[in-house]
Amino acid sequence: MLNDTAKKYEKIKNQTSVFVKRKITFTAAFVSVAVLFAISAVITHYSVIGGFESIPKAAAWIAKNLIPNAKSWAKLPNILSKLTQTALVSVAVTVCAAVCAFFFSLLGTKTTKNSPWIGRTVRIIAAFFRNVPDVVWAMLLLFSFGQNILTGFFALFFATFGMLTRAFIETIDEVSAPCVEALHATGATYLQTVFQGIIPSSMPEIISWVLYMIETNIRSSTLIGVLTATGIGYLFDLYYKRLDFGSAGLVVISIVVLVIAIETASNQIRKVIM
Questions:
Q1: Alpha-carbon distance 95 to 106, whole Å?
Q2: pLDDT tens digits, residue range 82-120?
Q3: In angstroms, rounded to a whole number, what is the distance separating the alpha carbons of residues 106 and 103?
Q4: Beta carbons within 8 Å of 254's beta carbon, 6+ residues apart
Q5: Burial class (CB in 10 A: 0-12, 13-18, 19+), 153
Q6: How far is CA 238 from CA 80, 176, 227, 254, 273, in A?
Q7: What's the CA gap between 182 and 169, in Å, rounded?
Q8: Fewer CB within 10 Å, N side or C side of the chain?
Q9: For 47-66, b where at least 16 C-beta lie within 10 A, e where not — what string?
Q10: Integer Cα distance of 271 and 274 in angstroms
Q11: How far, CA to CA in Å, does 33 sit from each of 23, 28, 163?
């Protein structure tokens, strides 16, 4: 009886100790973030109060200047044309990157039992492409290709390739392992393992990732278009620099509507395949 009481006391003591350690860790993290924010605000001369005070003024300026007028609506066909171009390029980039990333991820996953150094090399390459932002890729590629749609395509492709490779590796390792083990036990070849085990079991997750990247690339392509002078991003930059704020506002509204529509369609597709 005494031993049971001692064990319960020791268990409660350990749980209390863990709780206290977590509380100290969270408090230290919060204080560190607060100190970092304060230092950054002092260095950049940022005023929190001034920031909140500027919100009503910004909202009033948007309501006054970015509301489309009759002149802006006359430019809607041109805006929709550029918007369609941006959406199609984003879809093309995502599909091409997804195909390349899938076959590349087969070398990096542990499920296919490749050499460890090959898997490690694939993961390093994927991490490199993923961690370099698409905007940086666009600035680098501007020196080689100039301001054209090819620059935007490759900038989005490299970033998407790195992101999807990493995502596909984790998906295959998590979803396909039991199925692949069963195929290996029956003596299946490498291609049989890929096409009868990995692809069927991981396809829903892969499609979900592809849909997510299409949404992300449509948003990113707007900014890329400003740098590469293509698509809807260039059109927004052009109207804004001309001080044609009504047309620029119509561009923003069109982008928002497109993103919401694609996200809604993606959610419906996910419900069907998941």
A1: 17
A2: 888 888 989 999 999 999 998 888 888 877 766 778 878
A3: 5
A4: 79, 80, 83, 232
A5: buried
A6: 15, 48, 12, 16, 41
A7: 19
A8: N
A9: eeeeeeeeeeeeeeeeeeeb
A10: 6
A11: 15, 9, 28
Rounded Cα distance, 54 and 69, in Å: 25
**Amino acid code (one letter) for 242:** R
pLDDT tens figures, 209-234: 898 899 889 888 888 888 888 888 88
Q: pTM of the predicted model, to two decimals?
A: 0.77
Closest CA to 125 of 117, 134, 135: 117
Burial tier of 33 (Cβ tally within 10 Å: 0-12, 13-18, 19+): exposed
